[in-house]
Design a protein that fits this description.
With about 425 residues, this protein is α/β, with parallel strands linked by helices. It is built from 14 helices and 15 strands.
């Protein structure tokens, strides 16, 4: 446990890790004089309640300087020059960045895909899903250290990194016989659409799903963003992993060449099926690497379908170093309570792992889907800009997810997402 606590204290002191030894996490009065700031542990880590529903924070939450705390109280006092803080920001941070809530609710608060429902989460119910409160704990800790006379290195109020990510669930609508017939059946009354469907059959670039040149054009406007594409490599025929595309086929290879030439990055889009059968992850990764002749380190689960802490263990075993799944499907915001990347902590073992988790803050369909937030374009833009402001303020990572298909006329009704993405890119380019 000491390793985890040390990691959290250092995580809460970005650019100021040398001051970690001035922070104590103890209730032992005899140790108080050894530190400038002492955080009093709550009962959260006690073996008799850890892992049980009893360990959950109770709503409504207390606050310290207007920042919600999950454990402890808002009391602060001085003891012979040492600041004693009763807000257990260590346990609060652990609860959020380890996804502990999901660990103790393995079956309830889940949707039909087994995903944890964001609107059932503590961050949403306590009304801070839109705030990276772990980063606000950093602000508090640095302020208290500064009050003790320490020189603090402030974080730049700018994005640490911008990841414009795109899941390639489908490379074409009408380039197969099945897609062609389905398209004609759905659009038989429209001569224009039927013509487009036949044109798509003749040439990949005519297919509505082929929006990659537009994506690259937009992404380049930021000047400093990483365009990251997640590629399906399913080895099964699960219905929700369809449509499957041939990694060695001409269409995919043409798309891959275009993206590679534009210096894009690539990751594995772990299959829906793998959510229940994690043993096939390594096989999916190998299959993708063989097809594109490139080593893969990044991962995102199809449908954002992470179901348990063991999922991440399997990613590590497959030699994947970074995961970009950590956003809720039904609500935008900070699933990990932070805008900064964190090392994955396995709540079952209470160990820090080598896997880095990148917080996904906004997904396209989360904003617009009637089953999720169901926002119009103006409200979607306002919500996204609000989150980007928080990320920039805390020097976090802006990780956004827009699918290639969302820009097609098939899915982008009245150019909602095309215009929305353009506005977001404009903001990121400032």
């Amino acid at each position: 446990m000491n390793e985890v606590i040390d990691y959290i204290i250092n995580f809460l002191l970005p650019n100021n890790e040398t001051l970690a030894n001035r922070i104590g996490y103890t209730a032992d009065v005899s140790q108080f004089a050894n530190y400038d700031i002492v955080i009093i542990p709550s009962s959260f880590f006690n073996d008799n309640i850890y892992g049980s529903l009893e360990s959950e924070p109770q709503l409504p939450l207390a606050t310290i300087e207007d920042v919600p705390i999950l454990f402890g109280s808002s009391e602060i006092k001085q003891d012979n020059g040492t600041t004693i803080v009763y807000a257990d920001i260590i346990a609060s941070t652990y609860f959020l960045i380890s996804r502990y809530e999901e660990y103790i609710h393995p079956t309830d608060n889940r949707d039909i895909h087994g995903r944890y429902i964001g609107t059932k989460s503590i961050p949403y119910r306590a009304n801070f899903i839109h705030r990276p409160i772990v980063d606000e704990y950093t602000d508090l800790l640095l302020k208290w250290l500064k009050e003790k006379g320490h020189q603090i290195i402030p974080l730049p109020q700018d994005y640490q990194k911008i990841y414009l990510t795109h899941d390639i669930d489908c490379i074409s609508y009408y380039r197969s016989i099945r897609g062609l017939l389905g398209g004609l059946k759905r659009n038989f009354s429209s001569i224009r659409k039927c013509k487009q469907i036949f044109q798509s059959l003749l040439k990949l670039e005519n297919d509505p799903a082929y929006t990659f040149p537009y994506i690259l054009e937009q992404d380049r406007r930021t000047g400093n963003a990483t365009s990251l594409f997640f590629i399906k490599s399913a080895v099964t025929k699960h219905p929700l992993d369809r449509p499957a595309y041939k990694l060695n086929g001409n269409d995919f290879q043409k798309i891959y060449s275009l993206l590679k030439k534009a210096n894009c990055q690539f990751g594995l889009h772990t299959s829906y099926y793998a959510g229940d059968h994690t043993s096939i992850i390594s096989e999916e990764k190998q299959r993708l690497e063989n097809a594109i002749k490139t080593s893969i380190q990044y991962n995102r689960w199809h449908f954002l379908r992470t179901l348990s802490a063991d999922d991440f263990t399997k990613l590590i075993e497959a030699d994947l170093s970074d995961d970009f799944t950590m956003g809720y499907a039904d609500i935008v915001g900070f699933r990990l309570g932070t805008s900064r990347p964190v090392q994955c902590i396995n709540p079952a073992t209470r160990k820090v792992t080598p896997l880095k988790l990148h917080p996904l803050v906004v997904m396209d369909c989360t904003l617009s889907n009637p089953n999720y937030m169901n926002l119009n374009k103006d409200k979607a833009l306002c919500k996204t800009l609000e989150l980007l402001h928080q990320i920039k303020r805390h020097h976090g990572e802006a990780v956004l997810l827009w699918h290639n298909t969302i820009f097609s006329e098939v899915e982008d009704i009245e150019h909602y997402h095309t215009e929305l993405y353009n506005s977001i890119i404009e903001e990121l380019s400032k």
